[in-house]
Amino acid sequence: MKILVLNSGSSSIKFQLFILGGEQTSSIASGFIEKIAENSSFQMIKYYLDEKEIKKEYKKKIETHKEGLLVVSEMLKSCSLLDDFTLLDGIGHRVVHGGELFSAATLIDDNSLESLKSISHLAPLHNPANITGIEVARDLAPNVPQIAIFDTSFHQSLPKRAYMYALPKEWYENHHVRRYGFHGTSHFFVAKESAKILGKEFYEINLITLHLGNGASGAAIKNGESIDTSMGLTPLEGFVMGSRCGDIDPAILPFMAKKLGCDVSEIENYLNKKSGLLGICGENDLREIIKRAEDGDKDASLALDIFCYRIKKYIGAYTVALGRVDAIVFTGGIGENSPLVRSKTCEGLEESIGAILDEERNRDGNFVEIAKKDSKIEILVVKTNEELEIAIQSSEIIKKVNKEFL
Ligand code: AMP
After folding, report:
1. Is-above-0.85 flag for pTM?
2. N or C: less crowded end of the chain, CB within 10 Å?
3. Please, what are the domains in the chain?
4. Ligand 1: which atom is nearest the Cα of residue 290?
5. Counting Cβ atoms within 10 Å, is residue 236 exposed (0-12), middle (13-18) or buried (19+)?
6. Whose CA is nearest to atom 23 of ligand 1?
7. Residue 7: beta bridge partners?
């Protein structure tokens, strides 16, 4: 089965082409189009030929998503990877917000597309671009099944006590204000991988998964279901992130609006783009922050401290919520690659919850299981692969559709 995975942003398209068949799954090409409708568009495709990685870059000016997808199609054709989109078995689209309407991967038809449009206001920066990607792909390949996979759907299992905010009930009833959670595709993927690593059935596993990248979130997973997660109505709540504040006293918003004499959208911009690690130390790339901290920069050290301390507090809360924890799982650019963050986050967990990090295994970089033998809780480093998860979920829907037609 040939499946193209698309992640359409407001001015970008990321793509990855997969072949899935039997036990075998491989990514045969990936790439992106950037700066659509800007002065200098940029495109890249990466693929393998005779086990050698080949990377090609282009600077064709692209005005619309439709042109962008046509360029993706041209690039795949010129590299002899795919002659035409109509030859695909399916196209899997990443969609950020599924609201309460979409609790699983969904085949796109006119009805589901209308439903999807009806909840665009929940993620105004992301969903409209995701929908444009779907519409353009349907246009270019009308007979190819299109599947939407949502960042929120894995967290639709949250119980009401975890997803309701203590706000006027009408805000939920009339405006759908509740916790949705994000990074669901990643939390689900690493949770399944963790079950395999631990030799347990997925429906029996209890995990705390920590997706730590530029955006960061945690999930408490009980018997294979998400029962709590740190992001909320939007991806702003929870952990400290690259430039997002995470949990704060909401009264800071009106307080600072008055002090600065600015409106809510300006404050929103501060909270999303000028806060987090960037707000504390002027830098959002964790590699740079670590370098600066090692050189004695106090702001960078503080940013690192706050980042890890906040995650540790969530580990405590989720341990209590879960009762039994089989493993704490680190993933995402930071979770997978920073022994320092893993070490600082796990500091002191031996006393509180009996999780003991094996520093040698943690620093080595080649181990997946990094807890000491006598640790009560396993600690894992699991590489996430959201695109692969989207391809797998798409293939399952396609198989169902094909069966119905037989
Ligand atoms: P992501 O959003 O998952 O791509 O992750 C991006 C974040 O991962 C950035 O803050 C990077 O600085 C961080 N990162 C990537 N590699 C490393 C590394 N080797 N050590 C520390 N942080 C890293």
Report:
1. yes
2. C
3. 2-150 (3.30.420.40), 199-386 (3.30.420.40)
4. 21
5. buried
6. 334
7. 14
